[in-house]
Give the backbone structure.
Amino acid sequence: MTGVGAYLPEKILTNDELSQFVDTDDNWIRQRTGIVSRRKASSDELTSDLAVKAANQALRSAGVTITDIDCIILATTTPDYTFPSTATIVQQKLGAENAFAFDVQAVCAGFVYALTVANGLMCSGQGKTALVIGAETFTKLLDWKDRSTCVLFGDGAGAVVLQTDNSNKGFGILANKLYSDGRYRDILYVDGGVSTTGTVGHVKMKGRDVFKHAVEKLADAMDEVLKLAKLTSSDIDWLVPHQANIRIINAMQKKLNLPDEKVIKTVSAHANTSAASIPLALNYGVTSGKIKSGHLLALEAIGGGLSWGASLVRYGRPD
Ligand code: UT7
């Protein structure tokens, strides 16, 4: 993972602003979620626009050009259109003429899924340089009258560049594990779709139920990837978790016995940006100088499906 980039829409929506049109307050949102504000895309700002800005930054960060890119995988739940894939729109906007491109839909777990798919493709010889993007305009899926969901989400995009590494120095993606359980699909879903209502729909969530599954399933997934990589939690330099709720992040931190100095927390300013949340947090970690080349990163996310997973990544490149 040799480069990272991100983009956030300009508009900052604070808890106080939200409380002017929905029955909530800053105190409740901060205490229950850790969220202080979120970004909101304008009506003419598309998921692909956010993705392109994040991708360009990731390309610069990795020192590669767009023609080097063999593969673009975009994790999103808020595509520009039903089809074609938003990834192909991003491909066209970037001029990625040597790439194949497709979307991955695993809601909040999308980035971990996309990373795992990219790793599999690269390991099977389908390309040497990949762009993996998580991008969402999730606020466009919200019912602004439903206080149990509309305060939780935000918009943004993050991207990473993956390059094959023949140095055998242990860089890159060390282990991945994906899971899903469709029996729980009704605790977090959207009540519309192409073949059901013919509409886009709005997010519905039984928050308490999702919360209960989150910590237990993410902890098991993390145990599993550590086992696969023959590492322990004391080897982790940075936990870069999905940013849905500070209480879930803190519970994972406790389970892994990590100090504050080893956990990236961006939920206060980003809220839950679904598939964009991990790469946005990664970008913050790298650009703030916390994450350095050679660091071991532990990534984990859970969301609608339920779908969840974890990855272990040695960031950067050998000297
Ligand atoms: O990324 C996908 C994964 N998603 C998640 O990980 C989300 C997981 N769940 C959560 O983060 C939390 O469950 C929530 C933040 C969604 C909710 O927190 P909670 O502590 O589980 O609260 P609750 O749903 O049990 O609701 C407690 C109370 C209720 O009132 P009563 O029934 O106790 O009188 C709600 O009506 O809080 C009320 N409430 C609100 N009050 C003010 C719910 N939403 C709000 C709100 N403002 N926005």
Remarks:
- The CA atoms of residues 111 and 249 lie 17 Å apart.
- The longest strand covers residues 172-180.
- The chain has ten helices and 13 strands.
- The longest helix spans residues 207-228.
